[in-house]
């Protein structure tokens, strides 16, 4: 996991990372912060593709059974078109016409998208397989530390391994309106990007039997601002009140950052 944490750091800095898929190497770069695909094309010796998730493609009206697919990019795609493919609600077409040439993502490309999710970036990755001509140059840059390499298997599993590496950081008594005897316990993942909070209601030494538990995804708009588009905040406050009513001496609530475990 140490190499993965370093890879996340590089990706968030806008640097490419090598994903090793056996006989093939894939250069991976975040879409965010990228102004063109030409630098990646020059480094890899091949034209990059944009790897998009099944959910994003569904928003474009494209049905896909695979988790992601690779879209070849034209030589003259603009920055607006590139970012629009991953984010725009108007779904612009890339330069050159139709969304054609889509192929289901392989393990390395799935790993690329997973790395973006782990880095809390837009889940779309610029990817280019390293050509035979560019392979010696990539080897040299790996050897001198200018590039970092991770395996495709590690990249694809980087979300699954993080929760088991949570570290307990701190805790404090935080009286709540519906449960005055409450304590917040903070946990952090190894890369430091995600934090999880356990809201413990009552005294652990008095717990008997099974402990009621609620898993809550943090929702800024619902929890803090009372957004009418969701009832997340209401659910959280009702859960606190219900647990208190059930007998706070034996209850707790887990609260996690949205997307941290998914």
Automatic annotation (TrEMBL):
Keyword set, alphabetical order: Metal-binding, Riboflavin biosynthesis
Domain (GTP cyclohydrolase II) ranges: 168-249
Pfam family, one: GTP_cyclohydro2
Gene3D superfamilies assigned: GTP cyclohydrolase II
Domain of life from the UniProt record: Bacteria
Pathway it works in: Cofactor biosynthesis; riboflavin biosynthesis
InterPro entries named in the record: GTP_cyclohydro_II, RibA-like_sf
Entry keyword Protein biosynthesis: no
Keyword presence, Membrane: no
Entry protein name: GTP cyclohydrolase II domain-containing protein
Species annotation: Vreelandella olivaria
């Amino acid at each position: 996991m140490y190499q993965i944490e370093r890879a996340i750091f590089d990706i968030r800095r806008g640097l490419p990372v090598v994903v090793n898929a056996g006989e093939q190497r894939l250069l991976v770069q975040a879409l965010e912060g990228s102004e063109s695909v030409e630098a990646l094309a020059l480094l890899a010796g091949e034209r990059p593709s944009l790897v998009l998730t099944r959910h994003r493609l569904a928003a474009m009206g494209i049905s896909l059974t695979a988790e992601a697919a690779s879209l070849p990019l034209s030589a003259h795609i603009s920055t607006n078109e590139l970012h629009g493919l991953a984010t725009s609600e108007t779904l612009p077409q890339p330069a050159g016409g139709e969304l054609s040439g889509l192929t289901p993502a392989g393990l390395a490309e799935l790993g690329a998208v997973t790395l973006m999710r782990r880095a809390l970036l837009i889940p779309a990755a610029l990817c280019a397989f390293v050509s035979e001509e560019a392979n010696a140059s990539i080897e040299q840059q790996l050897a001198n530390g200018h590039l970092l390499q991770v395996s495709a298997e590690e990249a694809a599993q980087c979300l699954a391994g993080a929760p088991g590496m949570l570290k307990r950081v701190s805790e404090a008594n935080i009286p709540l309106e519906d449960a005055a005897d409450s304590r917040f316990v903070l946990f952090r993942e190894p890369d430091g990007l995600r934090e999880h909070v356990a809201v413990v209601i009552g005294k652990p030494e008095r717990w008997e039997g099974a402990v009621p538990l609620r898993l809550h995804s943090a929702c800024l708009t619902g929890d803090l601002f009372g957004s009418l588009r969701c009832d997340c905040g209401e659910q959280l406050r009702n859960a606190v009140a219900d647990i208190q009513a059930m007998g706070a001496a034996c209850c707790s609530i887990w609260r996690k950052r949205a997307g941290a475990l998914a």
